[in-house]
Every structure is written in C-alpha cells, then in structure tokens.
Amino acid sequence: MDLFSENAGLQAIPIEDGELAMLPHMPLPAASDVVLKQLIDETPWRADTIVVYGKRYLQPRLSAWYGEAAYTYSGLTLDPLPMTPLLARLRFDVEHWTGHRYNSVLLNYYRDGADSMGMHADDEPELGPAPAIASLSLGATRTFILRHKASKRTMKIDLSDGSLLLMAGSLQKHWLHGINKTVKPLGPRLNLTFRYVI
After folding, report:
1. Could you tell me if residue 81 is inside a domain?
2. Within-domain flag for 60
3. Which of 58, 96, 141, 170 has the fewest Cβ atoms surrounding its Cβ within 10 A?
4. Which residues of 102-141 are buried (b: 16+ CB within 10 A; e: fewer)?
C-alpha cells in the first residue's frame, strides 16, 4: 500500500531510493508565531560539541532532545527531557498527519542565517532500518538540501513556516540531508524532527 494514500493532505514528492512527502502547512494549536515563541522560551537549549572525522566541532545551532529514550549521534549522547504539554500536542498532530508513531523529538534552533546543519543521514541503529522521520518547521523559511549518496544527485525543498516534511522508507540509507548557512538576513527558525527510537 502506498505510504501516503490514506492521507490526502500529505503530498508525495517523487524521489528515487526512498519516500518523501510534504504537508505545506500543518494546522497548529495556536498562531505560528505564538507556538514559535513559546518553544523558544520554554526550552533549555544546549550548545553541543560533536565529533566529525575525529575532530570536535561546536554545532552551529542550539538543540534539545525530548522523549522516552536517549539518542546518540556523532559521539554525542542526548538524555531525554520529558515532553512538555505543547510538544505532546504537536506530536499528536504530527502522528495524525503522517500516520506514524513517534516517541521522541529533536528540536533545532536556527537563530539566524549563520546557523546551519551539515549533510548527514539519520541512520543510527536505534532508529531501525527504515525510519519514518517527520520534520516540522516554524519561523523563517530555510532551504532543505538532499544529496544522493551514490549518484550525488541533489534536490532542494524550501521549508516554510508550518510545513511538515516526512522522510521514510529507505531514504536515510541512500540520501544525505542538511541546511546551508546563508548571508540573507533571516529571523529565527525552529525545526522539530519527530522519530521513534527503538
């Protein structure tokens, strides 16, 4: 059965070696700017250092991890914070729109255009062989870049305020994704990536 056939709101994006779909604007429990401000204000943000090819780097963004299990990537282990009422409500709504269950969420806070996310795949063993990862964006629009690991083909998607992107199937096995820095003057952006940690 087609992953997205049961939900007319989620629009499939054609892509080889994986499954990708998007809801241009997910209904939120309050105005987007209100949700954005509350999440920024109530989250205990971390500035973490990660290991890439044996070298330590300060991540060019702030982050926080909520849910039911610890999560390890790039030499960094995140112990979960308990879900807040707002995050629990957003998780419920994301589960409704994507048809998948999630027990954890990673929040990334891009303070301006100088904050970024390096190219990577969410392919950690604790996510399983074909994870469904739902990405909710709030605030400034940023360009999401996907690059195929073998063919090097790239795809770019603008993630605007309130958009919901679902990555599923074998996408993490075959594709990298990230967000580049930009010199454009941009306001803050929050990205919430919901996932199920085994």
Report:
1. yes
2. yes
3. 58
4. bbbbbbbbbeebebebeeebbbbeebeeebbbbbbbbbbe
Confirm whether 6 is domain-assigned.
no
Which residues form the domain of 61?
11-195
What average pLDDT does the chain have? 92
Distance of CA 86 to the CA centre of its chain: 17
pLDDT in tens, 8-30: 589 999 999 999 999 999 999 99
- Residue 50 is predicted with a pLDDT of 67
- Per-residue exposure over 79-95, b if at least 16 CB sit within 10 Å of its own CB, e if not: ebeebeebbeebbebbe
Helices 32-42/85-98 angle, 10° precision? 130
CATH number, domain with residue 160: 2.60.120.590
Q: How many domains does the chain have?
A: 1
> Could you tell me if 36 and 139 are in contact, meaning their C-beta atoms sit under 8 angstroms apart?
yes
pLDDT tens for 30-63 read: 999 999 999 999 999 998 776 766 777 777 899 9
